[in-house]
Amino acid sequence: MLLKRPTVLVRPQPYRYMSRMAKPKTSAERVKTRRAKLRAMGLRPIQIWVPDTRAPGFAEECARQMRNIIAAQTDESRVEDDAWFALAAETWGEAP
Known about the structure:
This protein has 3 helices and no strands. It has a domain of 42 residues. 48% of the residues lie in helices and 0% in strands.
């Protein structure tokens, strides 16, 4: 003969008794904590808006601007550009 265990209902404790437990942080609180840590590290938040490369006409506009740049180049500006690139490569240790 099997004895049946008595069913015990456990009542959840009211919130006032849970004051010793850490309350879970909200998303806003976690973000605030993270940003405070980053600021303490000497960083600051910035927002950058860039062109949407998926937008219709983006590639055509890039090509148009490149044609304008190429058309505006002179022999003198090409020499200046080459000198700038050489200096940049030298600065970064990657001489041409």
